[in-house]
Design brief:
Elements (H helix, E strand, L loop, with lengths): L1 H18 L9 E11 L24 H4 L4 E12 L8 E11 L10 E2 L5 E12 L6 E7 L6 E2 L4 E2 L5 E11 L2 E10 L9 E10 L2 E9 L12 E9 L14 E8 L24 E7 L3
Antiparallel strand pairs: 1-2, 2-3, 3-5, 4-5, 5-6, 6-9, 7-8, 9-10, 10-11, 11-12, 12-13, 13-14, 14-15
Length: 293
């Protein structure tokens, strides 16, 4: 029922956005972009008779390849159409985005095809974007990575990752700042029927970022002692230099959450990037994040 309602909402948003595009007589310019990422590694141990690790968590001391799959790839495609400004239009754009990649580092996914290692792969992003539908900002809808720009390079860690299927408006100008609004549906929780409904708001004002998210689930199959609702907040400041020590950049942020927004669910929905984390107990968690480079 919830999925059907979401599908209808995305369809209606798409129709409304397309209907607001300029007349087809105005021929648009077209662009195609391709982006890719891959890594490949074959790590063995002489002490283990040159076998791979027998279970997860055996290679943490080797850095990135210690916590993620030795072999991984993503292929991203984007088709864009732009209508130039005219007397009747301020200029509009439509972008269709798709990303293929490995579904599960352990090869336990259920997608339709596999890579050369036999690990499950498939479509991990598929969404459309519209510029010019609203006065400012970009309307989007579909399945996408979301909120992953809050990232620590040193540890390869997203301290917010709100990826899922939804609809939203990014970068709209409001009250002197740039605002994002989104509804995200996330249903990666152990294959059960419970869906995490998340409502996200973010505002950027110069060097300051403020954001919050409300979360709700109809029921929690992990037990009655676990939360079915919650909220979280994040405030971040970005100095213009590296903590006053010269060129570079840094970010200082504070996160706070309760219920589904606290404990191991702070800063995330049910995503496929990090290890699965249980829907949180009614706990609170605050952490300080520093991002030097």
């Amino acid at each position: 029922m919830e999925k059907t309602a979401l599908s209808k909402a995305l369809f209606i948003a798409g129709v409304a956005a397309i209907s607001s595009m300029p007349a087809l007589a105005e021929k648009p310019t077209s662009d195609f972009e391709f982006h890719g990422y891959f890594r490949a590694g074959a790590l063995t141990s002489a002490k283990n008779d040159f076998k791979q690790h027998e279970w997860g968590g055996q290679k943490e001391t080797l850095g990135r390849l210690g916590l993620e799959a030795d072999d991984f790839w993503e292929l991203a495609f984007m088709q864009r159409w732009d209508w130039e400004k005219s007397e009747d239009s301020d200029g509009k754009s439509v972008r269709i985005n798709a990303r293929l990649g490995q579904d599960n580092p352990n090869g336990n996914g259920s997608n339709l095809f596999a890579n050369i290692d036999g690990k499950a792969t498939g479509l991990i992003e598929s969404f459309v974007e519209f510029d010019g539908v609203s006065n400012t900002g970009t309307l989007w809808g579909g399945q996408r990575y979301y909120g992953r720009d809050n990232y620590i390079f040193m540890t390869d860690f997203f301290y917010t990752d709100y990826s899922g299927t939804g609809i939203g408006l990014k970068g709209t100008e409001l009250a002197g700042g740039k605002w994002d609004f989104a509804y995200i549906a996330s249903n990666q929780s152990l294959g059960q029927n419970e869906m995490l409904n998340a409502f996200h708001v973010r505002a950027d004002y110069g060097q300051w970022r403020i954001e919050g998210m409300a979360k709700q689930m109809g029921e929690n199959v992990n037990g009655d002692e676990f939360s079915t609702s919650g909220f979280e907040g994040h405030v971040q400041y970005s100095p213009s230099n590296f903590f006053g020590f010269g060129n570079g950049f840094s970010k200082i942020g504070v996160q706070y959450g309760q219920g589904l927004g606290g404990s191991t669910m702070l800063g995330r929905t049910f995503t496929n990037y990090n290890q699965y984390s249980l829907a949180a107990l009614d706990l609170t968690l605050m952490q300080l994040l520093v991002k030097p480079i």
